[in-house]
Amino acid sequence: MIVDVEADLIDARAGRDVGFFDLVSVDAVTPEDSELIFDVARKFRQHGAYKFPFNKGRMSVNAFFETSTRTMSSFDLSAKQLSMDTAAVGSNSSTSKGETYLDTAEVLDSYNISTLVVRSREAGVAEMLSRHVRCSVVNAGDGWHEHPTQALLDMLTMLDHFGGKDLTGKVVLIVGDIMHSRVFGSLARILPKLGAALRVAAPETFIPACVENFGVDVFFDVEKALSGADVVYALRVQEERGAAGFVPSLREYSKMFGISKKRLDMAHPKAILMHPGPVRRDIDVHSALVSVDERSHILRQVENGMAIRKTLLWLLSDRLDKRVKEFKRK
User: Fold this and answer.
1) Does residue 17 carry a pLDDT above 60?
2) Residue among 196, 128, 120, 125 at smallest CA distance from 157
3) Which pLDDT value is given to residue 210?
4) What are the C-alpha distances in Å from 290 to residues 195, 223, 265, 301?
5) Residue 245 has what pLDDT?
6) For residues 86 and 163, what is the distance between their CA atoms, to the nearest angstrom?
7) Which of 125, 239, 286, 322 is the most buried (most CB within 10 A)?
8) 273: which strand partners?
9) Which string of DSSP letters, residue by residue, matches 212-253?
10) C-alpha span between 38 and 159 (Å, rounded)
11) If you write DSSP's letter for every residue of 7-39 in order, what string do you get?
12) What does residue 91 show for φ and ψ, rounded to 5 degrees?
């Protein structure tokens, strides 16, 4: 007999499936998909760490060829809370012996896994692998390109704060290392679809060429950019991707672009502060704002990340329409 908690999730799903088999870009997510994902994610969030039987007998592998804490742990815990068996593959896998990503993925796929969650230093790895494996591939971050699940959890965070089904009339300001940010890559694709106006503020060396093609307004003065912003979204300087060489020093960067309480007060009175993590305290964001200030939604983002990833693992692993993914061995 289905208990009330499980029935609650089944009711929220309402017999729906997402239109994609792989999530390698937010471009794959239609308005109907996002409505389904957010409806289900809100219910998962409501029921916390309850262990659902929905994916019992199915397996998920986290292939993280680049280090991670939040994303990897949330995918792993999400799978376990759906009763999935999990395994992890990292940079110490056979790829360190010369095996290609594709060979590694095909070996894992041969174990009859349901989902393969991939993070890589190089752009395009998840998309390439998705075309040659039977399982569903979820992009957990590929180089400087995209981070689609981060964008979805961010949208859920913003929508829940402001209410409604879109962000029409809202101004989202992204501050920091735009050049090296896959989070920006996904946010710039999805925010305009929800009606938000997008601004970026950063040193000129952190602004990628042709960024205006995303329809963003570029500011080199963060205090001017903050005026009227409804969301202040800080990014860290990604030193592991060579970003430190783009600014004189982190201290100088913090002085010019770090989000302090004084600066956050320049935004809209009801503005919220967001950050994808990990936070560099007193560089990206003043330490007192990270988890104490009521305007900070950083930990709410983490909570929503669990709900979004749980939702995706369920919807991708347990299709009600019984459609089967097409793929081609290479």
Assistant:
1) yes
2) 196
3) 85
4) 27, 19, 15, 12
5) 59
6) 35
7) 125
8) 232, 296
9) GGGTPEEES-HHHHHTT-SEEEE----GGGTGGGGSS-HHHH
10) 9
11) HHHHHHHTT---S-S-BS-GGG--HHHHHHHHH
12) -70, -15
**For strand 136-142 and strand 171-175, is the pairing parallel, antiparallel, or unpaired?**
unpaired
Q: In this structure, are residues 283 and 259 in contact, taking their beta carbons and an 8 Å threshold?
A: no
Q: Which residue has the tokens 């939604």?
A: 297
The two tokens of residue 242 are 């060579």
pLDDT per residue over 18-67, tens digit each? 999 999 999 999 999 999 999 999 999 999 999 999 999 999 999 999 98
Phi first, then psi: what are they for 106, rounded to 5°? -70, -35
* pTM, entire model: 0.95
Task: Please identify which residue in the block is written with the tokens 């952190």.
Answer: 206
DSSP 3-state of 176: coil
Look up residue 286 and give its two tokens. 């003043």
Q: How far is 189 from 16, CA to CA, in rounded Å?
A: 24
- For the beta carbon of residue 296, count every other beta carbon within 10 angstroms: 21
**Which of 14, 4, 60, 59 has the alpha carbon at shortest distance from 37?**
14
Token code pair at residue 282 = 């007193």
DSSP β-ladder status, 231-234 and 171-175: parallel
Nearest to 150 by CA among 229, 70, 30: 70
